[in-house]
Design a protein that fits this description.
2 helices, Alpha-Beta Plaits, single chain, alpha+beta, 68 residues, globular
Length: 68
């Protein structure tokens, strides 16, 4: 499954992702943007957040389990 990731070292705290997709992106108690755990991520909304991010710090990461 793919999941969105925020590279906090590049994030400029604009909160655009939180505005577009608050069910996935939230500001945590320490003040950083965080990705919520979801069974299924709303792909269209996450893609919109990725496109509008001014620092291009949001991307998809494959979360594949390794099997032997």
């Amino acid at each position: 499954m793919r999941r969105p990731v925020v590279d906090l070292s590049d994030c400029v705290d604009c909160e655009g992702c939180v505005s577009v997709c608050p069910q996935v992106f939230v500001r945590n108690e320490t003040g950083y943007i965080e990705v919520q755990e979801c069974a299924v991520y709303p792909e269209a909304l996450v893609e919109e957040a990725i496109m509008m991010c001014p620092s291009h710090c949001i991307f998809w990461e494959d979360d594949e389990e390794t099997t032997s």
